[in-house]
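Batch manifest, entry 17 of 40.
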Amino acid sequence: MFGTNHYDLPYYHPEVNTDGSVVVNGRDTLFYTVPAIALKKPDSSAGNVVFGQGQITIAGYLPEICDDSCKVVVNQLERLSALRENIHNLKFLTICQKWTAGNTDYPQGINTAGWDVVTGSEAEIDSVLQKVLKLPTKLPGSKTNSFESRLVLIDAKGHVRGYYHVTDTEETDRLMAEIKILDYEKKTN
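Output type: structure tokens
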């Protein structure tokens, strides 16, 4: 009569050998672990960001000039940041082309404890978004940058667990639920 609710979040990007075959350990598929990124902080100091290590990370990009769609993303980021009250191992990473302290377009908690901001050249940022976070910079058939409204969920071990288009409120709600699932899994393991 009583059951246990169990949710499985997918893992993205299985590890592959040089011949293109998926890497397995016994019967388990091994998945890509997001490596540390070395961009700089807005004050030009070293900004190495390490993933995993017990921290659930929400990573995304914000443009220098925040237009209407960016403001929708910022509102959703503010909603997500409220989860930090109960999920203490939740951190945020925002990658910006240029960031100015006190920019009122950005969330109030940005660049505080648990919220890292890093920057770099356009080429460095594109490389991190495409090669490290594995986000496409443009959607097929689109002339706009898709990564401005997309967030990546990285679990406490550094694996990509989801991609979310946060201009859609339902996607943000799904991200919030999946963060809670990851936090619950961490607490029960």
